[in-house]
Amino acid sequence: MAVNRKQKADRLPISQRIDSRMPNPKRRQATPTEWAIKGELFLNCSCEVFCPCVVSLGAHPPTEGHCHAWMAVAIDEGHYEGEDLSGLNIGLLVDIPGRMGEGNWKVAAYVDERASGKAYNGILQIFSGAAGGTTGLFTMLVSEIIGAERAPVEIVRDGRKRSIQIGRRIQGEIELITGKDPEHPVVVSNSKYWMGPDILVAKGLKSRVRDYGRVWDFGGKSAEVCPIDWRGPNA
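Now predict its structure.
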């Protein structure tokens, strides 16, 4: 089915970083803001199952020496300075050269094309770390935001499977790994992971990234699902 593309301005030049309303990410500073997000984050990365970054809090090196990943965020409930974010989807391309905790991340953001102007700006503030709170550490970990744009971000959550599709740029599908009880997935619980204390272990099924010069395939690689309850310092 043909998709009507929005104006080219929605796919912003890398030289503009996120957009004209945000500073160069190399000089980003957190500005305390009132926001909150509840929902689910899931991802697929280049590590063998299971990614060591979760329990080591980014201190252990990824199994391949680097971490390439896509992330998907489904916002069930949320707001940014009074603007409703509920029902919006976000996709992220994440390129980490070594240990997660050492920073130097390069990130591209794909924001649900249904987002209003204020919601779009708010989501970029949150995921750049500029809004402070739970994601404020991104101001230290993300060295470069290589691009941001509106896009048709399609997320499906169906039983043990999760998927994201952003045109041909990110096409990912993961599946939860079951434990002794086939009705329940394997869970890492009570962790200090920044995303949330409980992480469901998964693996990639069909997973491809084709954007910003990256050509990645994560089929069979490590994946995870995490319920999120994030908020800003003023929430």
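The first strand starts at residue 35 and ends at 45.
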